[in-house]
Amino acid sequence: MSTTPNTQPEPLSPISRRRLLGTAGAVGAAGLVAGGAAGAYASETARSEPDPLSSLGSTAEPFHGDHQAGITTPLQAHGHLVALDLAPGADRKAAAALLRRWSKTAEELTAGRAPADDTGIALDAGPASLTVTFGFGRTFFGKVGLKDRLPEALAPLPDFSADALDPRRSNGDLWLQIGANDGLVAFHALRALQREARGAARVRWQMNGFNRTPGATSRPMTARNLMGQIDGTNNPKPTDDDFDQRVFVPAKGQPAWMAGGSYAVVRRIRMLLDSWDHLSPERQEKVIGRRKSDGAPLSGGTETTPVRLDKVNADGSLAIAGDAHVRVAAPASNQGAAMLRRPFSYHDGFREDGAPDAGLLFIAWQADPMKGFVPVQRKLDRGDGLSRFLRHEASALFAVPGGCVPGEYVGQALLEG
Amino acid sequence: MSTTPNTQPEPLSPISRRRLLGTAGAVGAAGLVAGGAAGAYASETARSEPDPLSSLGSTAEPFHGDHQAGITTPLQAHGHLVALDLAPGADRKAAAALLRRWSKTAEELTAGRAPADDTGIALDAGPASLTVTFGFGRTFFGKVGLKDRLPEALAPLPDFSADALDPRRSNGDLWLQIGANDGLVAFHALRALQREARGAARVRWQMNGFNRTPGATSRPMTARNLMGQIDGTNNPKPTDDDFDQRVFVPAKGQPAWMAGGSYAVVRRIRMLLDSWDHLSPERQEKVIGRRKSDGAPLSGGTETTPVRLDKVNADGSLAIAGDAHVRVAAPASNQGAAMLRRPFSYHDGFREDGAPDAGLLFIAWQADPMKGFVPVQRKLDRGDGLSRFLRHEASALFAVPGGCVPGEYVGQALLEG
Ligand code: HEM
Ligand code: HEM
């Protein structure tokens, strides 16, 4: 459906309306709800305009395709990131069986169907834009005897001077990104997928995140983060000529099993919100280089006006400061390096020191981390005015293979190719 | 607005439509969004049917009234529970000033307006059904020299044999319950209210919870919990003759400052989900006494059919087992004791032992805990088949005063009366 990340889904389109009907049928067929109720739901839907609230629940993101879902999917209200380590002794065959089970379950769940032996947590909810995205960490390859297939691009991320990383919440053999617009649908998928890992892999770390609920604002807007900024404006757009080239490994790229795939850099970045909130709005805007209210660059215009890094104020100062986040991070400052940022906010209550344990589960997608996250973070690490208000607390890099066609599973080209 | 707890909000009604327009106006007036954009939004709204997604964001729950909001308000998708302790030396005057600030801010936020010096986190979102509910713990009264006004009903809850309570996450001088259908709106309110407590009180504990997003299912349904059960069916209904009597302190009740108020029992109840999920669906249904798929009692009928505790199967066994949760918890088994359960689910990732740290932020509302939670939990503690799958990990009891009228603040009758 929509391929524009970071904007609210559109009002019910003909496609999602078709999906709504499809879903109601599928739900009935899978016996998720009593036949009578499902029938009533489907026929009501066909008779009248759909319930104004129901497009949120009834939207299904397709599981199959060239790319996995959850990369260009519009931001979802709930997310779970899970890294798992293979059980000692798990081999390539065991890993292949796990990925096969996982793909099958993800296919069922994202269509709004219940898998066998279901916990029932998502009963009577629609798919609610559920996506499940699978990735492989560097340590996976050695453990299953596939060192020869380890992508160069999975080289460990370099150290950055401001890193304060917790190894127990970093890296991992396998990665799941679960997103949905309903908290129970997301939790349901987490439980189902975790259960299928039993014996084959155990959870290494798990993080919960959130974004705005679709419909909380009716203006199609870029998301806000917990610092209050509009975040995601200058992301590559799927309509850009070079979008695919930046974000996805080409069909004939290297290694072959990564065709249509992408690399995900995951950083848990805590925000020092108490210090941040002490800055005046003007100071905050200077740190970013954009206006807080509407995201317009300080060089003028509206949110979508291109940033003019060379613009000078009447007093001779730069309109966008030398250490402003958008200057230091911009492709123009980094030999064209760019990535697709698709984050979740997180908030895990308060720390022992009384500060909020909150910030960004920053996820950057790119065809090659050396032409995306790495050079940009090197620059930000040294010169970003925002970095005083951030703590990078965990880090991971995963190879996320392309999508699969019906009958196949994600990662099959790696594990059986 | 709606006074039916535990059901999904209705499709856009004339009232919420009026609110939508009202909100767009208020937003423009408060300068939350640039004039042009707000104008466009308002006129579009007036011209055509509202965006099908926008009722979620535009619904405002009134702050003023006989009772505080957040008690009979439909379940919200996001919740924060916060207990605070007064700063050493804080007196009645300081507490009164805090409650006055808090009420003012809650009034602004719940109408979708930004308070002074705003963090901007909720900019361009509507009120999204935000509610803020204020309560006083037993320890509050001694600290501010109001021991003579301590309600009898705030007597410490008795110990229950299965309790494994963490004192650092239990009790507290003051309590905030924040609920909203958008995660950023809820977090925004949490930050704003916490900031206003600076110097006067500090956070003792804080918990995050969630419920289904309105619209994730289009059937008006009772909520599900993380065990997969429909939960909330046999709650007292606002349409019941004795609803007010059960839930709210009467206008001429004792103490006078609690008129229109209620008592909130808060229990953090972890679910042993791994053991639970090992039970067959049939065993799970016996433990509760209701069907998992649709919540119908095992004595027959549909979700809303009255439970027949005396029903006997053909083989002579009880249709609803002797230790079934609904039997042991029912008013009929507890001399009529009843409470309004209005919970949030919680999920804080995984524990050190690998088990999910997930369950129910159980909140029970009643005019008198001795005729609500206490006798029922005494019985459940001894005889409930469900208790093997639960751990009560934290507990608190708060006196939640009635609502206030414009110009007053919540708790004024206590602090100045
Ligand atoms: C919590 C941490 C961060 C916050 C709050 C944050 C916030 C923002 C904001 C508000 C913008 C402007 C709007 C936009 O274009 O999206 C932005 C832009 C950007 N950020 Fe960040 N950011 C964070 C971390 C990072 C990191 C770690 C990277 C990459 C290493 C990064 C890369 C970028 C890029 C490439 C842009 C677009 C610059 C342009 O082309 O104009 N950000 N960020
Ligand atoms: C995690 C813990 C709990 C779970 C999962 C749970 C679940 C349920 C479920 C599924 C029902 C049936 C549907 C309904 O009528 O709502 C129910 C009913 C009920 N529960 Fe619980 N419950 C829990 C804890 C408690 C506690 C601590 C109390 C009070 C001390 C309580 C009191 C009640 C009452 C009064 C009913 C209605 C019984 C009737 O009149 O039919 N529950 N609960």
From TrEMBL, chains A, B:
One of its GO terms (cellular component) is cytosol. GO terms for molecular function: ferrochelatase activity; heme binding; metal ion binding; peroxidase activity. Residues 43-71, 286-305 are annotated as: Disordered. Keywords: Heme, Iron, Lyase, Metal-binding, Oxidoreductase, Peroxidase, Signal. Its cofactor is heme b. Belongs to the DyP-type peroxidase family. Binds 1 heme b (iron(II)-protoporphyrin IX) group non-covalently per subunit. It is an enzyme of class 1 (oxidoreductase). This is Deferrochelatase. Involved in the recovery of exogenous heme iron. Extracts iron from heme while preserving the protoporphyrin ring intact. It catalyses: heme b + 2 H(+) = protoporphyrin IX + Fe(2+). Residues 68-211 form the Dyp-type peroxidase N-terminal domain. Residues 222-404 form the Dyp-type peroxidase C-terminal domain. Its main location: other. PANTHER family: DEFERROCHELATASE, DEFERROCHELATASE/PEROXIDASE. It holds the Pfam family Dyp_perox_C. It is found in: Cell envelope. GO terms for biological process: iron import into cell. The keyword Magnesium does not apply. Its EC number is 1.11.1.-. It comes from the Bacteria.
